[in-house]
Amino acid sequence: xxxxxxxxxxxxxxxxxxxxxxxxxxxxxxxxxxxxxxxxxxxxxxxxxxxxxxxxxxxxxxxxxxxxxxxxxxxxxxxxxxxxxxxxxxxxxxxxxxxxxxxxxxxxxxxxxxxxxxxxxxxxxxxxxxxxxxxxxxxxxxxxxxxxxxxxxxxxxxxxxxxxxxxxxxxxxxxxxxxxxxxxxxxxxxxxxxxxxxxxxxxxxxxxxxxxxxxxxxxxxxxxxxxxxxxxxxxxxxxxxxxxxxxxxxxxxxxxxxxxxxxxxxxxxxxxxxxxxxxxxxxxxxxxxxxxxxxxxxxxxxxxxxxxxxxxxxxxxxxxxxxxxxxxxxxxxxxxxxxxxxxxxxxxxxxxxxxxxxxxxxxxxxxxxxxxxxxxxxxxxxxxxxxxxxxxxxxxxxxxxxxxxxxxxxxxxxxxxxxxxxxxxxxxxxxxxxxxxxxxxxxxxxxxxxxx
Length: 452
Prior knowledge:
The chain is of the alpha/beta class and 452 residues long. The chain is built from 15 helices and 18 strands. Helix 4 runs antiparallel to helix 12.
């Protein structure tokens, strides 16, 4: 693209566009980067500069950009039909995708409900859980148990079960009431003991709430293994299984939000597999189409599905849906994505790369201002602190995270921070040489910014 057009596009962006999770005053004042193309694991801007996609284009890209098999699948579907309603009709790609999702999902999940975003998949899950207990005659079960630091999306229902005040405090008057339990945050918890003891300790926080309020709670909502937007907060081994058992003990449903953790990010297809857990409802999005098109799925069991069966006049149907639910193009992309997983043995090839990433991350521990490194497969959070001895956070005014990210761009790496936490979540297709480059650049940028 010629420089004049690139400059004009940036001016139009600043004049007409409002970006998500972005302070637009800063955006309008500073030079901005406009992406024009993608190729493999790289993003290419309008000036022709290449950047390693270190966060998978917001955690959704899986096999890289411009993957021929997925490109061809979308083109082939486009020659048949681009969209048809899923309300009272069905279509071929959605039927095939539903079968495939159930085959790869934790055993016991048997039905698929489609939406078009992670937030929407959680909204569907909340409504299903609430309405399930209403149909079962337990009218008092009307609220949810959420975890502190949780993030489940930005629609009002998903915000209500979220726990990050930085994002959502201003909307508090609009939200429905929930119960909250402390979530694992080993780095900042004052706890001495083994991982197993810590898992018990954290699960006891949930049990305390369930014991007192289970008659009012319809479901526990959680991100398994890793709370993503909270700053990549990992959970001790065994914690997920303990929460699953508590949900059964106190007769509440378990909703596993695998929007971020699903489709290989933790080393398995779904994070729940690490502890052989089958939730009552599982939410999936982001990587479902390998980052190609908006699509999400809410998977559930026959037990929940059957509660909605009845005669037409009983009005027991699930009155919820979207215009673009199960969009055929998105379903075609998702099918191609899963075929690549299977034929290319993506998960098997991922294991040595996870090991390499772990080894490379150890080098960052040498840096004075790296307080904690948290990892679950290809999900990584590097928490930067002003004083490591007392775990003192950097003040927001110092903009440490954004400064590290801008330094990384100068070195050809695209990242996005969560406050003082530098997030790494590369595509599963990343090469070992690119993985080493990613960690090397992060080391250099953290050293330069915090050292200064």
